[in-house]
Design goal:
The chain is mainly α and 56 residues long. The chain has helices at residues 5-35, 43-55. It contains two helices and no strands. It is rod-shaped, with a radius of gyration of 20 Å.
Length: 56
Amino acid sequence: MPRDPVGEAQTLQWTIAALNSLEMVTVPWWFLEVTGAKDTISPAGWKADLVTWRTC
């Protein structure tokens, strides 16, 4: 990390921006994990869930 205050601030800003962009990509994966929807990740699983949902 740069020693000068401006360089340090820019490095920190870029680091936070990079982490923030990764967060939005990983939120759906986290949600699937939390809800236990691992089996519905394939299109076949989505179709089965849709059929079940429509018949309820």
